Amino acid sequence: MTSTQVDKDHQPADGTGDGGEGYQRGLGSRQIQMIAIGGAIGTGLFLGAGKAIHQAGPSLVLAYAIAGLVIFFIMRALGELLMYRPVSGSFAEYAREFVGPFAGFVTGWTYWLFWVVTGITEVTAAATYMTYWWNIPQWVSALVFTFVLYGANLISVKLFGELEFWFSMVKVTAIVGMILICAGVLTVGFSDAGDTATVAHLWNQGGFFPNGVGSTLMTLQIVMFAFLAVELVGVTAGESKDPKTVLPKAINTVPWRIAVFYVGALVMILSVVPWTEFQPGVSPFVAAFEKMGLQAGAAIVNFVVLTAALSSCNSGMYSTGRMLRDLALNGQGPRVFTRLTRGGTPLVGLTFSAALMLVGVWVNYVAPGKAFEYVVSFATISGMWAWIMILVCQIRYRAKCDRGILPPSSFRTPGAPWTSWFALCFIGMVIVMMGLDEGARVSLYCAPVWALLLGVSYLVLKARDPEGAAFAKHR
Asked: What's the predicted TM-score (pTM) here?
């Protein structure tokens, strides 16, 4: 399909229509902004940072800063594509147009799998966090959470947006509160940590790179996992009330979000508590609260990570239904996934994905321990595939713009295509680091199996429906 054909079949140039997709534009500026902010804050920061600090020491701050710059390049590349054509299918749609139908097929199904896998881990984690307060069976909590979030997503996109707004508000408030408390400890000297807290902790405990640069590089998988879901704002494009105005504002907040919520929070925590006192599996926020003598901190952080897990699961349900419907509309998935409710919700795709997330409760029950680490690794590699496609599509789109084949976007990526190439090289380095990590290496074993499965599935699709395999969008 040519770019001209695609443009006719999709979103109007002003981005005000529904693009023929049938969705309702129920997400306002307030909700999109908070989805964008909350997408960058999850359990990867609240829990995963403990292991990364133990491994890299204070240099983890630099790892988050550099990775955050790469994330900004990725988001600006996505923003340029979104302003060219804001659609719900997002990067899967762009992969079809700028790389080919098979790339769109792989991207759509891989991103769907990423959110199913993430939802499986997060709903189970949320159920585990509930045992902190009540001694109830884990499967009961998981079942209740899944059905509540499923029901909220089924009713309307506006309700999804409202839930995500408040989930994100809790996470943002927690981090800002921690930063202010740590600032008070450093300046005023209150709490048990007041006498020992100092910014010098960042370099006095063995230096800024206490375990060497290599150890810092090995934390990049954990760092990048923490940033997964920032691209979710692209999936909301087809349901945003004013995508041409709201989405650029949300994307441009990425630098200060990362500066405050990751770099700022870690600098403060590591100034109050020496990095040598952090242990894997223990939230750095809990450790900091305990060091300051604030025993209520554990309960507060437990509530926040519960919120973060539910937020991730909520986002997973939202995106999986949309991605399945986009695949179905392109003839690359069962047609039954195209069905919408009166509220504009992809009923069958959402139900199918939620059912698979329930299976995850059983999987985590029979395979505890290493299972979670393996799942996280696979989620990272599948999530990064979406980032790779965003960058490749932006490079190809810009090349067509430069040749006058396509109109330029109103939100051009600064420094492109060099910034996009830099981001691609960085992601490639992260994948190499994953190959050197015994715990993460399993994801690289799973990736070829998934690729083979997709390749065979596409060949079957091509044999049964050549038109569906060769063309994109609303046959």
From this structure: 0.86
